[in-house]
Amino acid sequence: MATQSEYVIETTDLVKIYKTGKVKAVDGLNLKIKKSEIYALIGANGSGKTTALNMISGALFPTSGSIKVLGNDIPEKRRLISNHIGMAPQDYSIYQDLSLEENVRFFSQLYGMTKAEFSPRYDELLKILRLKEKRKALVKNLSGGMKRRASIACALIHSPRIVFFDEATVGVDPVLRTFFWEYFRSLKDEGITLVITSHVMDEAERADRIGLMRAGKLIAEGTPEELKKEHNASTIEEIFIELSEGEIIDE
Ligand SMILES: Nc1ncnc2c1ncn2[C@@H]1O[C@H](COP(=O)(O)OP(=O)(O)OP(=O)(O)O)[C@@H](O)[C@H]1O
Ligand SMILES: [Mg+2]
User: Fold this and answer.
1) pLDDT-based confidence at 1, cuts 50/70/90?
2) Using an 8 Å Cβ cutoff, are 196 and 40 in contact?
3) Is the beta carbon of 174 within 6 A of some atom in ligand 1?
4) How many other C-beta atoms are found inside a 10 Å radius of the C-beta of residue 90?
5) Stretch (H or E) spanning 212
6) Which atom of ligand 1 is nearest to the CA of 18?
7) pLDDT > 80? residue 92
8) From the CA of 20, which ligand is nearest?
9) What mean pLDDT do residues 218-243 have?
10) Which ligand lies nearest to the CA atom of residue 165 in the structure?
11) How far apart are CA 124 and CA 153, in angstroms?
12) Do you find a cis peptide bond into 160, omega within 30 degrees of 0?
């Protein structure tokens, strides 16, 4: 693996134009994210958050620009760092007709984990995510919040150093959301870097830093306190509404 800079994630002038799309879904994105930061990418529907995350995690080819994750060029060197990256996509990536355990085991095998490595980590995650009772349940029979936790278990089974949660807490009740954040903080304390996207603004306020996207561009960035001061706002929601105005497009 390449030597590391101060940043675990760096993008330079990142652009994505989908083949079928007319516009730049991501339009010159420059991000620098440090180790053990919790970085929240926020923005209106269609502002490019998922597209950005998918390029950074190596799932989607950029049209132009460059990406470095843990000092490695993405997507070229993605293979070298796949064991260090975890991804919980916006759309459930887990198999509905398999049980929770079969799903998590499947992901562990993708990462080349042995049975001996799998079992203790799986037990630990299920305990933390309060899913122990559901290990044999088919995913399709889980509630929305449980499915969310199940996809988090799949994303974390191999103990990655960087985790991407795309709309991690959509459909999650406030109690569970608080629990998720406690868990995110504990991951941070272990030195793990988290990049999340969110529409829940009080949630964005809990991140270390926020990047606000509009039409594929980063239009504001800083700690929640910095942003509120800069925009003379008392909440991030106010800033979101002010800066995202006109962005709600009819697709
Ligand atoms: N596979 C695709 N093919 C063509 N266009 C796409 C594709 N995926 C996304 N887009 C377009 O790219 C733009 C950015 O979409 P993206 O999903 O990245 O936004 P987002 O910020 O994640 O939105 P949301 O908050 O709704 O999840 C939108 O205009 C969308 O229609
Ligand atoms: Mg999205």
Assistant:
1) low
2) yes
3) no
4) 16
5) strand 209-214
6) 4
7) no
8) 1
9) 93
10) 2
11) 10
12) no
Name the residue with tokens 């990406």: 67
What residues does 38 pair with on adjacent strands?
194
Closest CA relative to residue 187, chosen from 208, 171, 211: 208
Average pLDDT over residues 3-26: 90
Tell me which fold the domain 7-244 belongs to: Rossmann fold (3.40.50)
- Distance from CA of residue 165 to its chain's centroid? 2
The best mutation among 23, 41, 47, 164 to test binding of ligand 1, ranked by most ligand atoms within 8 Å of the C-beta, falls on 47
Ligand 1 within 6 A of 211 CB?
A: no
Sheet with 209-214, side-by-side order of all strands: 85-88, 162-165, 193-198, 38-43, 209-214, 217-222
The phi, psi pair for 49, rounded to 5°, reads -65, -50
Task: Report the C-alpha gap between 214 and 174 in whole angstroms.
Answer: 27
Beta pairing partners, 26: 16
Q: Which residue type sits at 54?
A: N
The conformation of residue 141, written as its DSSP 8-state character, comes to G
Distance 199 CA to ligand 2 centre (A): 10
Domain ranges across the chain:
7-244
* pTM of the predicted structure, to 2 decimals: 0.92
- Distance from C-alpha of 60 to C-alpha of 186, rounded to nearest angstrom: 29
Mean pLDDT of 201-226: 93
